[in-house]
Amino acid sequence: MESETLLARITDYASRPDPYPLYAELREAGPVAQQTDGSYLIGTYHEIAALLHDPRMSVDPRTRGDVTHKPPFLRLDDPEHHRLRTLAMRPFGPPHSPGRVDSMRGEIDRITGELLASFEAGRRIDIVDDFAYPLPVTVICRLLGVPREDEPLFRAWSDALVAAADVRPDDDSTETDKAGDQARMEMGGYLVNLAEQRRGDPGDDMLSAFINEPDPTLRLTQEELAETAVLLLIAGHETTVNLITNGALTFLRQPEQLDLLRREPDLLPRAVEELLRYEPPVHMRERVPRADMDVAGIKIPQHASVILALASGNRDPMRFHEPDRFDPTRVDNQHLGFGSGIHVCFGGPLARVEAYAALGALIPHLGSARLIEDPPPYRQNAMLRGPRHLSIQL
Ligand code: HEM
């Protein structure tokens, strides 16, 4: 059966430049595809959206007895998840008044301008290393209160953690898991130490706010602080880089859409939503049912690994008109790029502000730029998918 090996084929590095035909194959096989390793792959929009909202689906690895330490709230179920998420999202504010994040717009524009200053005609630029990576790193460091110069340190930890968190079918590579655990402990220790330095002497950053929380019912334990800060630092910089780079690549591949955006810059917010649908930075998320359940007539047993292919749901023709077309004027666009349900990304407003600034500033430079390598080399990760480099000649 084709679907038996689909997850292995999707996660195979050779599929990284274009996994979309495999997602089409997945959807054609039906909403639920059981894999030979006992996991289930879900690729249709409505089933993914329903499962993201289903309280029977757990994200906590302890549901299956996998680990003993308490994970970050991305991998906690309610009510534990709700308490930590509420605390962590305070500076991000509700979607229409993004609080502290909103006040960073000026700073984001300034950082973007500084990065673009080196973009001179005739130069060769790597969009990832010279632009799309430094911007979100600088922003999340500022927000958390992490010294920007420590980037080489946390980049290595982040690489190890992201590798361990990837979707790896039939995999028992304990080495990757061990390296991930080690990195999580070191990075957590580093961040707790930074927070401790601000006890009683707070700055306007999140680590200061966590460590100086006046309400004892809201105060984080040391373990919670470590896990939360690690999650924010990683989520804040491993995703937005892909959104900006995928945007630049899509525009370079589709000069007529680039032209449209140059003529009508007001379309940029819609174009960014369309990128989150068409080339989302997060391709898959895993859930575990607490009890046996039935999905589209197929029985999924308790504790099975259920992989929700968000990127496939985004290309589902049952939900989106001409889903394989990048259409920056698309209006009906409730994509799964930021997930949905109780774990929906609260970094969305920040990621959008960064993407508007970065892509808005980049677009005027792209018209005369040449893509050096297409497809570009991709990062190893299948879940957090994006180019490792994107070289262009200005
Ligand atoms: C383009 C950029 C981004 C994309 C595509 C993205 C995508 C996502 C997705 C799909 C989820 C849901 C995960 C799940 O349901 O299992 C998520 C959760 C999350 N994101 Fe983002 N994200 C982005 C940027 C950010 C930024 C800038 C931050 C800020 C620090 C952030 C922080 C988080 C956190 C903390 C969660 C966990 C929420 C929870 O479990 O309640 N993300 N993100």
Care to describe what's here?
The model has no long low-confidence stretch (mean pLDDT 92). The chain has a single domain, classed as Cytochrome P450 (Cytochrome p450), CATH 1.10.630.10. The chain starts with 5 loop residues before the first helix and ends with a strand. Helix 6 packs antiparallel against helix 8 (134-144) and helix 10 crosses helix 12. The chain has helices at 6-11, 20-28, 45-52, 80-88, 99-102, 105-116, 127-132, 134-144, 151-164, 174-196, 206-211, 222-238, 240-253, 255-263, 268-278, 310-313, 348-366; strands at 32-34, 40-42, 57-58, 124-126, 285-289, 293-295, 298-300, 306-308, 370-371, 391-393. It is α+β, with helices and mostly antiparallel strands. Helices cover 46% and strands 8% of the residues. It is built from 17 helices and 10 strands. The chain binds protoporphyrin IX containing FE. The site of protoporphyrin IX containing FE has 25 residues, from helix 12, helix 13 and helix 17.
Strand-residue proportion: 5-15%
CATH fold category name: Cytochrome p450
Gross geometry: globular
Number of strands: 10
Give the names of the bound compounds. Answer: protoporphyrin IX containing FE
CATH superfamily: Cytochrome P450
What about the largest sheet?
Answer: 5 strands, mixed
Kindly, what is the distance between the CA atoms of the first and last residues, rounded to a whole number of angstroms? 47 Å
Structural class: alpha+beta
- Highest CATH level, the class: Mainly Alpha
**Biggest sheet, strands in spatial order?**
1-2-8-5-3
Order of helix and strand elements from N to C terminus: HHEEHEHHHEHHHHHHHHHEEEEHHEE
Approximately how much helix is present in the residues? 40-55%
How does CATH name the architecture? Orthogonal Bundle
Number of helical segments? 17
Arithmetic mean of pLDDT: 92
